[in-house]
Amino acid sequence: MAKKKIKKTASPVKSLKGQEREYQKHLNKLGRAMVKAVREELLPYLKANQSGYTLDGISDQLGVIYRRLNGLFTGVFTLGFAKITASQMVEKVGNANKNRFNRSINRATGIDLGSVIQTEGLEDFIASSINTNVKLISTLPEQYLSQVEVIVNKGVASGARYDTIAREIMGKTGASSKLAKRIGVIARNEVQTINSQLTLRRSSALGIKRGIYRTSEDEKVRTCHRELNGVEYDLVKGAWSKSCKKFIQPGITDINCRCSYSPVIKMENL
């Protein structure tokens, strides 16, 4: 009797909200520490000396404060924090993805792939993901403190009021707020990207070549992603977007993409 081909569709491995929140929580600890240091080390000096912004000695003292702040949050301290935080995040995302992927395939096919997933050889990808996140975390102090320094130096040089300078740093649209938003973007994008890349690699390891594009089906979905919802595509190439004129890998191609895919599994039955 000829073999009959059966096509199964597994559920998508969607974004890992719990891991996103946890990663953001850890990054926020660094962010809050930096904001607190600026508030306690820099702003009091500016406020106490606002009448003498044009005096020669103020730039020298500001330089001392900048160096102290940079010494607190760059170098060995931040690198150690970054390595621990990034390693923990990647490990937890990897474990969560493995469990969800296995459960998805098991429900669709009735086959438990736990032992296969354990030995799939993702060491290089895991190491690369950790290194990427170490670099991202390490840039947070450099960018934030540099932005604060630019704001202060411009304000002092132009004779701006202390309130104006403080608002540019601590206000709702100031440097500290931008830092918090960037941390949120990093947490969401990195967890989603790693989760999506792991799913793609695990699909490939099982010989799964096709997927059905899935969006989160809300108002935040990009137009060129929305048009792909429900489309079956080649997992290697990605789904072709006519409006954006490019191939899109859900959760990977575009930053903060929340899309995923349902693995399409071709099976043979006697």
Overview of the structural elements:
It is a single chain. With 270 residues, the protein is of the alpha+beta class. The chain has one domain. The chain has helices at residues 17-48, 57-73, 76-109, 114-118, 123-158, 162-170, 175-205, 223-226, and strands at 4-9, 210-214, 232-234, 239-241, 246-248, 260-269. Strand 4 (239-241) and strand 5 (246-248) form a beta hairpin. Helix 1 runs antiparallel to helix 6 and helix 5 (123-158) runs antiparallel to helix 7 (175-205). The chain is elongated. The mean pLDDT is 91.
Can you summarize this structure?
The chain has 270 residues and is of the alpha+beta class.
**Mean pLDDT rating:** 91
Q: Give the ordered list of helices and strands.
A: EHHHHHHHEHEEEE
Give a short account of the largest sheet.
Answer: 4 strands, antiparallel
DSSP strand (E) fraction? 5-15%
Number of domains: 1
Low-confidence stretches: none
Biggest sheet, spatial arrangement of strands: 1-6-2-3
Instruction: State the shape.
Output: elongated
How would you name the oligomeric state of the polypeptide chains in this document? single chain
